[in-house]
Amino acid sequence: MKFNITFITIILSIFLLGCKQQESEIQHLANVEYAYTKMDKKIQAIDSTLDKIIAPYRKEMGSEMQQEIGIIEEDLVKRKPNSNMGNWFADILEDEAKVVFPDIKIDFAFQNYGGLRVPVMAKGPITKGDIFELMPFDNTLIASKIGQKEMQQLMDRIANYGGWPISRSLSFEIKDSLAVNIKLNGKSISEQDSFMVALPDYVANGGDDCEFLKGKIFRNSGRFIRDIVIEHIERDAKIDQIQFVDHTERITTNQ
Amino acid sequence: MKRRDFIKYTSNASGLLFVNSAFPSWMYNPEFTHLTILHTNDMHSRIDPFPNDGGRNSGLGGVTKRAAMIKKIRAEEENILLLDAGDIFQGTPYFNFFGGEVEIKLMEEMGYDVATIGNHDFDGGIENLVKQMKHGSFDIVNSNYNVEDNALSTLIKKYVIKEKAGLKIGIFGLGIELESLVPESLYETTIYLDPIKQANKTAAHLKKEENCDLVICLSHLGYKYKGGKISDVSLAKQTRNIDIILGGHTHTFLQKPDLISDLDDQQVVINQAGWAGIMLGRLDLVFEKNKPGACTTCKNLLIGE
Q: What angle, 0 to 180 degrees and rounded to 10, lies between the N-to-C axes of helices A48-61 and B63-76?
């Protein structure tokens, strides 16, 4: 018995000694303070070393990105379920899909919400750089042929998200996060067996939770959506046409 | 005396004490070690400030401003870590034209220490990511992407340990699920592993085996979601041994960092600094040497009671 107690004491001593040495080295977090510094006009100082690094790249991009390609007369704001930015963009996709795929009868077009990367595009001149920032991805325009089942899945996906930009030919209601009362040019979709949809290749390949669209590609234009939109705006500008924005509510919420 | 006040106050607040200012003078006590963490996330190739077009973000951001601010803080504070939580790439023509080269060169110039990768850092493909990162010498960490079978294996470290002011700081990264978010042709054979499992494994290693004083997770999972999707907040609740999560992906502007209790009922600091370099996030940390008999495995914030 006595042996046991002595043994335990020795072990404990070694343990405590060991701990003490280790403890004196280890530190613990005792206090945290925080700050967020906004990079706004109040900050005057700039680091010119970085400007020197950027300069040659800026020069190489040249004035191309500053080039004014057209005019918009209202601030385009990205919102769910509908927004003027979403309507404007999706309508360009529908119109341009008809040009890019002249032999295909496109029913409607859509753009996934996350594909548009700026919350606001200010009114006034539109630069090429604005469109690069709005649509930076090298996504190509696709025509996919889908059946009734995929059509409902796609609309439900859009409804579940709270709305994506859809073109003027399409409308539906969101009810309990599902799409109901889906209409194409005012007619129920039950009148059609298949649908030709214009969309970005990212989604056509199953991206943004659209796995059901995989394998439904009818034709890939091979052309970047960004370039298509730039050309659309440039074409309008040539005939002194400002960008047209349709404000109709395509997606309504029925909560 | 003053130190005692501080500890008492902290205890009364039953946890970490947040003060929205730089270190108060009484904290400059030889018993305390200071570490300043500067952090960004979702820079999205925003090199120049947003254009002055009257829009919401008009004139905000800009890398030359941020660099000047970082230089100023470096002149004021001795121990600084500069970290980024991913999505360095994509969003301005700089990326379309140069594939990320400018972004990385600028981060290198600013002296970034460690970054993790976000989904958009895959946008130019794996080879491009590896190529562009050669313009920088900072570490890229991620512990939940299995990249054994592709070129990223030469770039990504599971974690790094940085030593500052006698502190050992373990830093690891977590990335978001790539399937359905990034085209497979871009992420190739990268396999997404359960972030909770990997975080627990990596953080335990850093705390217990490497004896790190602080464990930081650079996360590109996103701040918080309505459903069951893994986020920084749900990660904190389901892990142990992580002290700080610096997040990204959701472009969240927080009013103050979050404090979430982990599996051991220890508090985890969660922070995020918006996006596009509009904000520079800053955490000023104070460390105290552990006392004999005090808990050495936990943060031990109630020491002194």
A: 160
